[in-house]
Amino acid sequence: MSDEPGSRIGSRRAFLAGGVRSGVGALILASPLAPAWSYAAAPRPNTWAQRVELAGVPNLHRVTARFYRSAQPSADGFANLSRQLAVRSIVSLRAFHADDVLSGGSHLRLTRIPIHTWHIEDKDVVAALRALRQGQRYGAVLLHCQHGADRTGLISALYRVIYQGWSKADALAEMRGGAFGYHAVWGNIPRYLKSANIATLRAAIG
């Protein structure tokens, strides 16, 4: 009799082999050596910035009642921020892009503090944090860069430490693990946060 896959013997052997493979697969999944993705992810801390869905504003998160962070908004996004979230001020960290044209007609207060991702300077950090705090006098503020992950992540982390009393470790954990899209290639950013003299920055902000 034929032993080809289409024959009776071939079919029986294929069935038995499949059963063995299924059993081995079940044992692997039940094993403590199973891959990490087989376990449920830890819940997101409720103290971390929370995701907000708003058309035209990618990677938008609410940090506090008067502080949002995001990637670059579109023209519709700026209008929606003003109308739906009562955002009154925008602080941009982009070095080669201005918001003036996109935000036209939205009556938003615009501040731009150009920061180069690869070279963080104290004076720029101080200016960004100062602009953020000053903007909160008028209502909610949106902080953004291009992706809303790295420069925005650093300033948001320093805000946590300076104004909310977080430890650097906790602020760094949110920056890296908060699903904002932090790019690990910018290792200078966590190094800056770890080495930052918080008392000096706070005094310079005023």
Shape: globular
- How would you characterize the largest beta sheet? 6 strands, mixed
Secondary-structure-derived class:
alpha/beta
Mean pLDDT: 85
Number of discrete domains: 2
How do the helices and strands follow one another from N- to C-terminus?
HEEEHEEHEHHHH
CATH superfamily of the largest domain: Protein tyrosine phosphatase superfamily
Summarize this structure briefly.
The chain has 7 helices and 6 strands, in the order H-E-E-E-H-E-E-H-E-H-H-H-H.
Can you give a write-up of this model?
- The chain is of the alpha/beta class.
- It folds into two domains: 8-38; 50-205, Protein-Tyrosine Phosphatase, Chain A (Alpha-Beta Complex).
- It has seven helices and six strands; from the N terminus they run αβββαββαβαααα.
- A six-stranded mixed beta sheet has the order 1-2-3-6-4-5, sandwiched between helices.
- A hairpin with a 2-residue loop joins strand 2 and strand 3 (67-70).
- Helix 4 (151-164) packs antiparallel against helix 5.
- The radius of gyration is 25 Å and the shape is globular.
- The relative contact order is 0.12.
- The model is unreliable at 1-39 (pLDDT under 50).
Question: Keywords for this structure?
Answer:
single chain; 206 residues; alpha/beta; Protein-Tyrosine Phosphatase, Chain A; 2 domains; six-stranded mixed beta sheet; 7 helices; 6 strands; disordered N terminus
